[in-house]
Each structure stands twice: as C-alpha cells, then as structure tokens.
Write a structure and sequence with these properties.
Layout: E1 6-12, H1 19-26, E2 33-39, H2 45-51, E3 55-59, H3 67-75, E4 80-83, H4 92-103, E5 108-109, H5 125-136, E6 152-155, H6 156-162, H7 170-178, E7 184-185, H8 193-197, H9 213-233, E8 264-269, H10 278-287, E9 292-297, E10 313-317, H11 326-331, E11 339-344, H12 351-362, E12 367-370, H13 383-394, E13 410-413, H14 414-419, H15 428-437, E14 442-446, H16 459-475, H17 489-502
Parallel strand pairs: 1-2, 1-4, 2-3, 5-7, 8-9, 8-11, 9-10, 12-14
Antiparallel strand pairs: 4-6, 5-6, 11-13, 12-13
Helix pairs in contact: 5-9, 5-13, 7-9, 9-16, 13-16, 15-16
Enzyme class: transferase
Organism: Rossellomorea oryzaecorticis
Family: Belongs to the glycosyltransferase 2 family.
Length: 504
Amino acid sequence: MAGNKLSFIIPAKNEAKLIGGIIKEISKLKPFEIIVVDNGSRDNTKEIVKQLGGRVIEYPYPLGRNVPRAIGAYYAKGDILLFIDGDQVITSDKLKPFIQAIEEGADVTLNDFRYVLKQKRSPHCTAVARKGLNLFLNKEEHDIDSYVSIPHAMNRKALETIGWWNLSETGVAIAKTFMSDLKAESPIAINVLRKNARRPGARIRAKTSPFAITHDEILGDHVLGLHYLIEQKGNRGGFLDDRNVEISTVNKEPPTPGKTRCKRSAVIVTTKGRGKSVPSLISRLETAKVNEIVIVTDHTKDSFSEMKKNNKVKVIKISGSEGTYYERFIAVQHVRGENVLFLDGDFLLSTREINRFYKAVEGNTDLALNDKGYLLGHYPMSSKTSIHYCLNILMKKPDLLNFSLTEYPHALSRRVLDHHQPEDLLKPPVAYVKAILSNFTISAPQRIKTCEEDVKCDEIFLGDHLEAINLLIENTHEKGGFSDGKKFEAINELRRKEEENESP
C-alpha cells in the first residue's frame, strides 16, 4: 500500500484450523512479508504457513504472552509492522485503516476500545488497569487503548523508539509510546474479546491472586509500565505536590497524665466548603455518644465561636495554604479517641449512619470506608472512579471496588493511627496501601452519597495514587507481586546477537 513495505507479525500455537484463512485474508493487502512466530505447536501450523508463502520463526516451546510479537518485530524488515493473532480471522477491510492512518502521518495505530467501558456491565480488571495506566501517563483521551489488544500497527520510527524487545511488556511499550513524541491514533474498533475469553489462561485462577492467570500477568505488565514511568519521572510521575508542611515542627499532642483515651472521637473538616452541616453534625455526634469533636477550618471568620463553649469541641484554624489533606494531618495529632470518624462539614449524616462507621472499627475493622460502589454503575466510568478501582485491583483487593481513604466519611481504629505516622494522612492513598500491606482489615459499612465525582483527576490526586503504587512496588517487585509466565531467554539471546553485530 502506497509504496510502503508491510510486515505482518502473527504469534501462533496450534492454529492449523485458522492460520490458512488468516494468511489468505491478509494477502489481499499485498504484504511485503508474513512472519509467523510458532511457539510450541504440535499440529501442522508451520507447514500451512510455509505452503502459503509465510516465514516461520520456530520455537519448540510456548514463549508466553507478547514475547512472540517482540521476536517477530526483531526479524521484520517492513516500513510498517501490523500485529495480529493466529486464533481469529480479521478481514482485510478492517485491517486497512490501521495501515492507512500510519501512511497519513500516525506512528502507532491501536484498536479503539473506548466502547468497552461504556457498556452497562461491571468493568473488567484489565480494562480498569489499562485506563489507569493511560491516566497516569496523562493520556486520558486514549481511554483503555493499548498494545494488549490486536490489531495494532507501528512504523519503523515507533519500533526504534519503543525498542522491539519492549513489545513483550505491553505496559512499558505503551508508556514509552505516550511519553515520547510518537503520534498514536485508534482508527477503528474491532471486537476481539470473545475469542480471548475462551483461552485457558483466562479461566484458570493464578496461585497467589484473585485473578485468572492471563489477567494476573496483564496486570503485572501494567504495574511494570507504571514502574517505568516512576523510574523516568520520580515516584509521583512528575505530578505536582502542593504540601507546604514542615513535618518535624508538628508533634502529637501528649495525652493528659493519668487520663485514659476516650472511646469515640470525630474530626469535622470544613475547608473549601461552608461547613453548613456542622451544628447538626455535632448534635448527632453527641447523640451517638462521641466524646471528642475536633473541627478543622480555614474560614477567616470565627463561624464556630459558639461551639467553642461546648467542652467536647475543639476548633483548629488553618490558613488553607498548607496543601491538600493538611486538615487530616493536623487533626489526628489532637484526637485521643480509640476510634476516629472523619467527616465533611458540608454533608449531614444521621445518627444511625454515624454509629455504623463507629461499630465497624469497634469490631474487627480497622478502616471503615464510604461505600461508593454505586459509581461503578455510571457509564462511562469517571477517571476518579477508575483510579480508585485501579488501586484496589493492583493491591489484589478487587472486592473493595472503588472504596478509598480519600473519600469522606471514613473511620480509623486506634490500631491504624498508632501504626501510621501523622504525615501518612497527608497522602491518603499511601496510608491506604500501607494499611493493606500491614494486613489491616477494611470494610465499607455504609453508603453515603456525597457528591458525584469530577470527570478529570487533578495532579495531586494522580501523584498521590502513583506514590501509593510505588509503595506497593517497593514492598513486592517491579510487577507489584503479579505473575509473569514469559520466557525471556529467546529475547535475551536475540539482544546479545544484535549487540554483537553492532560491535566494531
């Protein structure tokens, strides 16, 4: 097409039933070469490919996900490389847009998967991870488009930028694509999901994970992509951090000698909002037998002067310039309760709802969070919900849905407060991951509808969550504790060969 040499790269294992039809279909596009990387076939896949004029790169054993693609890219000589799979026939008219877009100026073309998260069904774990990675890469417009799904294509410039060997790691490959000057487009949507769902690895559960083997490996690839981003731009991925707090200058308020801790404390935050519900909240907290109430406010006027007369209430004024979540950091150093409930002063809870959070942390729960799972039923799923859900998936806690320590109301047990440092609460996602890694228990005892989430995530939010994921990586490995069934020996051998050929 248009004078460019086109290379088709097809991984295959026991695909004798389909490979002939695939090659006949793509031959309509007059490719320069068809490379089939046969890894572990025991049927006559290789013979069919050769009879139809294709080149076979043969390995006697399965190479694992994506490794055959990388090997095929190493051998390819074309100007445009188009990657498909050997287990489904895609018609030439559907493949043509991937090539045409590159001929018209794109460097990379991806399968348009934006329709997936618009469907009225629970989003798949890998789709959420794909969207999360793209959000952290500041590429929200690409939604969940990725090298995970075929078809996709690239020109020689893209291949050299990404590195052929990195095509075995889809998370790193997409990170390198989006962090460079490569132009990526998604010209057409092709549904390839039905065939993927029938693969054995998509049905058998991984040994140390709640996910199927294939999905577990895909999630690990995406953590590796985040690890690459962190390596390049720091543990916040280059996102802003607005904290202006001198941690060493603030100390916990020492307990009064001989005085035991009270049972229930509450923190009411009125920063940014008007605190319109504070008087009613105080009344209901007292009904719930809360012994200590701390109000943190950045209001310039003394709106809570009357409340100071209540010996259960303490008002802490802040300037509002200290940075995000400072109110939690300062408040936790002034509460003495065995269990602490954090509330937004603009939202009124009933006494019954208040009691549910306290009873959870007075029992076996350490973090009692707001159940905002209803947001997963909003289509398309918002970016903020996606990041919350993505973090829980990467922590291997998909049952926690999009529950988050960033959302009010939530309650913490003294066990967590004593384990964490006050500064941990400056970055709630980090405190959250630290709690999970320390095996604290988490539940969502009550659903409180506060406000609908913003469509976009701000830099503080993204940076905090990336720091939390970095904490996971530091406590596991660069794939976040997920499995990896790839055989990299073949890639390593080709890289050694490549280096030897380049040596003077």
